[in-house]
Design brief:
single chain, about 325 residues, mainly alpha, two-stranded antiparallel sheet, 14 helices, 2 strands
Length: about 325
C-alpha cells in the first residue's frame, strides 16, 4: 500500500501544470479558489476531530502562508503562459536552492559531489528553455514567473523548517491555507472576474483542489508513514517527465529532440543530487548512532515537507532536512 501511495502522489502532483492550463482561466483565480476550497475542507476536518486553529498557530505560519499563497498564484500564472515542459522543469529546481540555504542557515551537510550534479541539471534546464519551438507555448514571461515561484517555494520551505516539527499535518494545512488564500485575494481582485469563472474553470479548479490539495496530500501523509522520506524524494524526480507526458496526451503539446535530451539531463542530475545527499545523510546518521550517548537515544526527527511537489505545502522535502535528534534521558 505504501508503494501505491507514493505512485498516486507522484501522478497527482505531475498533473498540476496540465490541469491549470486545461482550465483556460487566469492562473491567479484558479490559485485563489483552490486555496479557499482546500482551506474549507481541512478546517472542517480539524473541527470534526474536536480541534481548531488558534492564534498561536496563525502567528507561527503567517509568513510561510503568505509565501506559499504567492508561490501557487505565480506558478499557476506562469503555467498558463508557458509550456508544461518548461514549467515542470523550473518547478523541479527548488532542491538546488533549498539545500545550500539549509547548509548556510541550519548547518546542514551537503555532499560536495552533488554540486557537479546541480550544475549538470541547470545545464539541462538551459537546454530545454533555449530549445523551445518558436511556435510553442513557451514565453519569457512564463519562464520568469516560473523562476519567481520557485524562489518563493524555497523561501516557504526554509521558513517552515522548524514550524512543521511542532504542528501535525491537519493543523498545519488548516492554518496555512486560509492565510495563503488571503495573500492571493488582492491579486485575484486586481485581475477581475473573481466570481466569473466558466463552468470549465470551476470544474478544473475543483479537480485541482480535491485531486492534489486533498487527495495528493492525504496520500503523501500515508506514504510517509510507510516509506523512507529519501525514497519518496527520489521517486518524485520523475515528475517533470510525467508532466510532459500529460501535456502531450491532454494538451497536444510537443517537444523536440533537444528538449527531450535536456529533460533527461535534468532528471539524471536531480536524481544524482538527491541520492548523493541521501547517502551522505545516512552515513552521518550511522556515525552519530555509533557514538556513546549521555542524554538519551538518537532517533529520527519528524518528517517535513517541501520542494519536490507541485508548489504545494505538503510535498516531500529534501532528505537533507530530515535529521537525527536527541531526546532527553531520564532525570538524574
Amino acid at each position: 500500500m505504501g508503494a501505491l501511495a507514493v505512485a498516486g502522489t507522484v501522478l497527482a502532483f505531475s498533473l498540476s501544470s496540465t490541469l491549470v492550463k486545461r482550465a483556460q482561466t487566469p492562473g491567479v483565480l484558479v490559485a485563489f479558489w483552490r486555496m479557499v476550497l482546500v482551506a474549507i475542507v481541512w478546517n472542517l476536518y480539524l473541527l470534526a476531530t474536536g480541534r481548531r486553529v488558534t492564534w498561536a498557530d496563525v502567528r507561527q505560519v503567517f509568513v510561510p502562508g503568505v509565501l506559499v499563497g504567492l508561490n501557487l498564484a505565480i506558478f499557476f500564472a506562469g503555467a498558463t503562459h508557458n509550456s508544461v515542459a518548461n514549467a515542470a522543469l523550473i518547478g523541479s529546481l527548488p532542491p538546488f536552492v533549498i539545500v545550500p540555504l539549509g547548509a548556510m542557515l541550519f548547518a546542514e551537510h551537503v555532499d560536495p559531489r552533488s554540486i557537479a550534479c546541480a550544475l549538470l541539471a541547470f545545464g539541462g534546464v538551459a537546454m530545454v528553455l533555449l530549445s523551445a519551438p518558436p511556435n510553442g507555448d513557451a514565453t519569457l514571461k512564463g519562464n520568469i514567473f516560473g523562476f519567481v515561484a520557485m524562489l518563493l517555494w524555497a523561501g516557504y520551505v526554509v521558513t517552515t523548517r522548524q514550524t512543521r516539527r511542532a504542528m501535525d499535518v491537519p493543523t498545519f494545512m488548516a492554518t496555512v491555507t486560509p492565510i495563503a488564500a488571503l495573500a492571493v485575494a488582492p491579486l485575484a481582485i486586481a485581475n477581475g472576474g473573481v466570481f466569473a469563472l466558466t463552468a470549465k474553470g470551476w470544474t478544473y479548479t475543483f479537480i485541482l483542489a480535491f485531486l492534489i490539495g486533498i487527495g495528493g496530500h492525504g496520500l503523501m501523509v500515508f506514504a510517509q508513514r510507510t516509506n523512507a522520506i529519501g525514497t519518496i524524494g527520489i521517486v518524485q524526480v520523475i515528475q517533470p517527465a510525467l508532466a510532459v507526458v500529460w501535456s502531450f496526451l491532454l494538451l497536444g503539446e510537443t517537444v523536440n529532440g533537444r528538449q527531450v535530451a535536456g529533460i533527461a539531463i535534468v532528471i539524471v542530475g536531480l536524481a544524482a543530487f538527491v541520492v548523493l545527499n541521501e547517502l551522505s545523510l545516512r552515513s552521518r546518521q550511522a556515525q552519530l548512532a555509533a557514538l556513546p550517548l549521555e542524554d538519551g537515544p538518537l532517533e529520527d526527527g519528524p518528517l517535513e515537507h517541501g520542494p519536490l511537489g507541485d508548489g504545494d505545502p505538503a510535498a516531500p522535502i529534501s532528505p537533507l532536512f530530515e535529521r537525527r535528534e536527541r531526546r532527553p534521558g531520564p532525570a538524574r
